[in-house]
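Incident log, support desk, overnight shift.

02:14 A customer reports that sequence design results differ from what the structure should imply. Their input is reproduced verbatim below. On-call engineer (initials T.W.) acknowledged and began investigating.
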């Protein structure tokens, strides 16, 4: 047996004689005496210890075979995966006037039409439901609940089609939360609504400055009221977008939520991510968790600080596990309001990155999106590969003006991973 290539080993100053091991492939963590690690390296482990370390992914029979297995991992997932995921942009309209709005000047009253909805339903029936795949949609905008009736029609038809074929159907939405009333949720749950993500950009004074209504009135109070009304009906996620100047104020929001009775048992997940720019030059704030690899010192500090504050108060936040960009998965798509198809929400406003449309289908995008760029010796030998798989293709686009090569996360993970693993050890049961 050999130590896995995809392994990080950290010292334990508070536990002399022990080491903290983290498997980037399995997401497993173990506190191990140094003597057992030495025994593992020298091939003289007790059978019970060896079985445990193999089961958790810290020991492998053949490092070369492990490397080849990882090389083919995503190809295998695409062959056998039985889930179809689509982000559906219902409109480009919104009732808020966020100062950092991703759509920027492109925001206008453009809506997914009845004709496009018909094409969408047919496309999903043929590509997913007829092939026995579970369907998970995420309705987005603009503000998707400005298209509430059409969301109901689309989901109702797809739910009926899925049930007729014996496959699962469900949908989520990313919404600013102002229209997410109890009545709306109660109407949509029977049609397949499972969860929603809403945004609170810090405590009231900060949020209202960044996310006012078009009229200029603050939106914080209404969103919080709606969160209270629906958090026990669906899986509710709370996101927040911080800046270099305000991230240390976000713990005030966490304390406010607790005071208002919005406790960890009522929130499925909570996560804060950085505002890194506006339309055309940054990642969509609703989708950049797990994608960005910005190596600025302040951002590294903010990421560790805010995750600690979230976990310390008992809220759930995304764990550190194997993940890859949605571009790599054949059945992960973005459907724009006009029926154009993309592989990432951030690609919508960029020329030449559409991969087809609902009417004509999907074109071959392997070359244009530089798939499998991470299948190099350098990447396959990197312990961080399961957490990265070549990084974020949109960051490549922003940096180089085209998709190609790698967006290496090694500097970011060198600076953050140990602290994040230690947070998980301390706070996760």
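02:41 Re-run completed on a clean worker. Output:
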């Amino acid at each position: 047996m050999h130590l896995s290539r995809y392994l990080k080993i950290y010292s334990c100053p508070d536990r002399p004689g022990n080491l903290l091991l983290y498997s980037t492939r399995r997401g497993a963590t173990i506190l191990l005496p140094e003597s057992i690690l030495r025994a593992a390296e020298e091939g003289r482990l007790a059978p019970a210890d060896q079985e445990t370390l193999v089961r958790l992914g810290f020991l492998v029979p053949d490092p070369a075979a492990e490397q080849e297995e990882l090389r083919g991992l995503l190809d295998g997932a695409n062959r056998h995966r039985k889930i179809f995921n689509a982000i559906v942009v219902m409109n480009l309209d919104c009732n808020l006037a966020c100062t950092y709005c991703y759509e920027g000047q492109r925001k206008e009253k453009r809506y997914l039409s009845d004709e496009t909805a018909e094409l969408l339903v047919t496309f999903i029936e043929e590509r997913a439901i007829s092939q026995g795949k579970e369907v998970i949609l995420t309705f987005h905008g603009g503000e998707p609940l400005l298209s509430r009736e059409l969301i109901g029609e689309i989901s109702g038809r797809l739910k009926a089609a899925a049930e007729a074929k014996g496959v699962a159907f469900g949908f989520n939405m990313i919404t600013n939360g102002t229209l997410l009333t109890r009545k709306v949720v109660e109407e949509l749950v029977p049609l397949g609504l499972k969860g929603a993500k809403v945004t609170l950009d810090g405590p009231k004074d900060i949020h209202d400055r960044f996310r006012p209504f078009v009229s200029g009135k603050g939106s914080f109070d209404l969103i919080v009221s709606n969160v209270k009304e629906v958090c026990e009906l669906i899986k509710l996620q709370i996101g927040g977008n911080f800046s270099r100047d305000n991230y240390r104020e976000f713990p005030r929001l966490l304390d406010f939520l607790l005071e208002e009775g919005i406790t960890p048992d009522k929130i499925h997940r909570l996560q804060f991510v950085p505002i890194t720019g506006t339309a055309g030059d940054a990642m969509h704030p609703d989708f950049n968790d797990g994608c960005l690899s910005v190596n600025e010192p302040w951002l590294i500090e903010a990421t560790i600080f805010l995750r600690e504050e979230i976990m310390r108060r008992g809220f759930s936040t995304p764990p550190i596990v194997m993940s890859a960009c949605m571009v790599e998965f054949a059945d992960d798509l973005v459907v724009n309001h006009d029926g154009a198809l993309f592989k990432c929400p951030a690609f919508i406003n960029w020329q030449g990155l559409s991969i087809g449309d609902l009417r004509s289908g999907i074109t071959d995008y392997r070359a244009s999106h530089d798939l499998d760029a991470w299948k190099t010796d350098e990447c396959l030998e990197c312990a961080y590969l399961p957490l990265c798989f070549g990084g974020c293709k949109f960051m490549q686009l922003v940096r180089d003006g085209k998709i190609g090569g790698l967006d290496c996360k090694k500097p970011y993970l060198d600076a953050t991973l140990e602290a994040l693993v230690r947070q998980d050890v301390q706070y996760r049961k």
